[in-house]
Amino acid sequence: MPQVRNRHGLQFTAAGDVASAAFDGAVMNYLSFSKDTGASLKALLAADPDMPMAQCLRGYFFMLMGVGALVGKARQDAQRLLAIEAQLNPRERLHARALDAWTNHSLGRATALWQQIATLHPRDVLAIKMAHFGHFYVGDSRNVRDGVAAVLDFWSPEDDAYSYLQSMYAFGLEECGNPWQAEAVGREALARQPSDPWGIHAVAHALEATGRTAEGVAWIDTMAGQWHGINNFRYHVAWHKALFRFESGDYTNALLDYDQIVYSDGATEYLDACNDASMLLRLELAGTDVGDRWRAVAAKVASRTEERVLAFADLHFVLALTSSPEPEHRELAQRMVGLMEAYAQSEAADAGLYRLAAVPAAKGLVAFRQGRHADAVQGLAEAAPHLYRVGGSHAQRDLFAGVRAEAAFRADRGAPDTLALLAARTRSHPHNRRGWTLYLDALEQCGDASAIAAARRRMTQT
Predict the structure, then answer these.
(1) S-S: 62 plus which of 74, 90, 245, 271, CB 3.0-4.6 Å?
(2) Distance between CA 419 and CA 401 in Å, rounded?
(3) Same structural domain for residues 437 and 371?
(4) Do residues 408 and 277 both lie within one domain?
């Protein structure tokens, strides 16, 4: 089969240069969260329907949607590629195997293969981006950072993808506890490419990690012209603005942001539902009346209880369903937890993370909604050491720590374990107003005047 090279010097099995250029265009649209990504993939397949990496990219895009019904289609692409594996070049073979692993419930194996490709071919920006995604959703923060750090020297600022690599690296720096450097690298990336949503997102994470909530709101607003026109990721950028409001204790405007820029009836991708459910729960726990909003979020995910594509999404689906006022939604939540338990006992490669983290956390969420607060604490405490494995950012996963703290407070606010949990939370999240409210109330319950005075001094210093 003919071989051509793309703009980054990679070899492709393809009919000609038109196909390789169309492939590059589709990948760049993916990096920039463009609304035209799907259209560019169709144009690529029209230009060369037999191009192996075009078929692989289609399979990746199917899987990135996080929809169970599309996994079978992605698996067909993987099987077609493996059937002609001998005709592929070595890099393409690794991509085909990565897609096959992913469609067979092993995101971890797929991620290892993507990182192997990036190591062998550091100019393969698709492999780098896929590895970044994979490390993120298996909870490997170190490699969210280091997977990109390992290849940056093979690129120059003149390369069209360089700023996107920088923004990935910035996000990894923040997830590894270096928000100040993350902010600097993210701003440098955006100076080169202002319309990079991942760079905007990385800087937002850095601002959140350093407790600069007012700056965070201003940042999202200032960059609005760059993120409003992108694909559904715009709802997650908007979620960060609402999160800044929430962290500062401005619950009224956080709910207003939810209604105006976070929630949309037409936003039905898994991340959309995660945004919706996590923000509603945070606000509700802080005492905000969220009205009947849970019903609509639960309706988005009611048909998705059997998918097992991402554990992170599954937990938010359970949360939405068990929070709905509709009895049928709550019954679906119970059924979904049962399906997750069955999956956790299967031979699937990802079964272990469900067994150790997703199932006990899901049980904890359901117990919390049922008012069984001690059971909720038990489930979420069991999951806590392993919860990083479900993926998501530290900011996103903090929701589960927040529910655990709330459940402990409601179960027995004066218990030593509760005080210890709440004290630690105010240390790790000193800018979270709700955490301080719970901790000070718990201290009042135990009546230790010196501890109360110390905590209040510390709160005023944050």
Answers:
(1) 74
(2) 14
(3) no
(4) yes
**Residues 79-92, mean pLDDT to the nearest whole number:** 96
> Does residue 440 sit in the same domain as residue 371?
no
Say if residue 340 is exposed, middle or buried (CB neighbours under 10 Å; 0-12, 13-18, 19+). buried
Q: What is the CATH number of the domain that holds 34?
A: 1.25.40
Q: Which pair of tokens denotes residue 387?
A: 């919860």
Single-letter residue type at 361: A
Whether 17 is in a domain gets the answer: yes
User: What is the mean pLDDT of the segment spanning 96-110?
Assistant: 96
pLDDT value, residue 454 = 87
The helix/strand/coil state of 4 is strand
Place of tokens 């390369």: 159
Quick one: 306 exposed, middle or buried, by C-beta within 10 A (0-12, 13-18, 19+)? Answer: exposed
Does residue 321 contact residue 284 with C-beta atoms inside 8 Å?
Answer: no
Summarised one tens digit per residue, pLDDT across range 359-413 is: 999 999 999 999 999 999 999 999 999 999 999 999 999 999 999 999 999 999 9
Task: Specify whether 447 is located in the same domain as 357.
Answer: no
**Which residue type, as a one-letter code, is found at position 142?**
R
Residue with tokens 């991340």: 271
Number of domains into which the chain is organized: 3
How far is Cα 48 from Cα 446, in angstroms, rounded to an integer? Answer: 71
Its domain, for residue 441, covers 413-460
Local structure of residue 288 (DSSP, 8 states) = -
Q: How far is CA 301 from CA 219, 268, 437, in A?
A: 31, 8, 32
Q: Are residues 358 and 454 in the same domain?
A: no
- 13 found inside a domain: yes
Instruction: Please report the pLDDT score of residue 229 as a whole number.
Output: 85
| Cα–Cα distance measured from residue 39 to residue 307, given in angstroms and rounded to the nearest whole number | 26
